[in-house]
């Protein structure tokens, strides 16, 4: 329960306890606190035993720490009845992402090399070069004018 309290924190707690309760009442307060902690532990253990007895014999090895999702998954990975280690080791996310990125880059380069006039977005592998000035359309690039359409 107090595994993470260092010596400096313990001394600080003792000094504060002496200042708050005084040296005369401090032993009685310590006894009361330890008695309360002991009762809470006994209540907790009896509740665990009641739950285990109600679950039945098929849950005799049930541990309440297994209710923590991290502990449950770690236990299942160590058990490996489902073959999860093989699946986990066979899946490399970095490799998969690199393959997808390479495939997209190859498609972009093929699309830009196959088109007759590359667009600004496909000329640099999917990036727009803002330093280039846009090309001026010539007279041949204009759509035909239709007087009746307007």
Automatic annotation (TrEMBL):
Where it mainly occurs, coarsely classed, is membrane
> Bias regions of kind Basic and acidic residues — which residues?
129-150
Q: Name one GO molecular function term.
A: protein transmembrane transporter activity
Question: Spans of biased composition, class Low complexity?
Answer: 112-124
Report quaternary structure and partners.
The Tat system comprises two distinct complexes: a TatABC complex, containing multiple copies of TatA, TatB and TatC subunits, and a separate TatA complex, containing only TatA subunits. Substrates initially bind to the TatABC complex, which probably triggers association of the separate TatA complex to form the active translocon.
Q: What species was this sequence derived from?
A: Streptomyces cellostaticus
Q: HAMAP family, alphabetically?
A: TatB
For the keyword Amino-acid biosynthesis, the answer is no
Listed GO cellular component terms? Answer: TAT protein transport complex
Q: Name one GO biological process term.
A: protein transport by the Tat complex
Q: Which UniProt keywords apply?
A: Cell membrane, Membrane, Protein transport, Translocation, Transmembrane, Transmembrane helix, Transport
Which Pfam families does its entry note? TatA_B_E
Q: What does this protein do?
A: Part of the twin-arginine translocation (Tat) system that transports large folded proteins containing a characteristic twin-arginine motif in their signal peptide across membranes. Together with TatC, TatB is part of a receptor directly interacting with Tat signal peptides. TatB may form an oligomeric binding site that transiently accommodates folded Tat precursor proteins before their translocation.
| Upper classification of the organism | Bacteria, Bacillati, Actinomycetota, Actinomycetes, Kitasatosporales
Protein name, UniProt field: Sec-independent protein translocase protein TatB
